[in-house]
Design brief:
single chain, 71 residues, 75% helix
Length: 71
């Protein structure tokens, strides 16, 4: 179960990181965060929130995955 959470966390982390880097290079290209109000700052904060959520979920899933007994 934790492997699936870890994979999902890595996907969220990658999407947020890619969006933040793209936004820093091209300020007008907000990508998936185009719907977020606040312009550049709002989109950047939303991308960084995705990075933080993915990082936290990945850390928890990685720790719990090590505790699971192997089958």
């Amino acid at each position: 179960m934790w492997t699936g959470v870890l994979v999902a966390a890595m996907v969220v982390l990658a999407i947020g990181g890619q969006g933040a880097i793209r936004l820093l290079i091209d300020h007008d290209n907000r990508g998936l965060m185009n719907w977020v109000p606040g312009g550049f700052t709002g989109a950047l904060l939303a991308d960084l929130a995705l990075v933080a959520i993915g990082l936290a979920a990945g850390a928890v899933a990685g720790a719990r995955r090590r505790e699971e007994p192997s089958e």
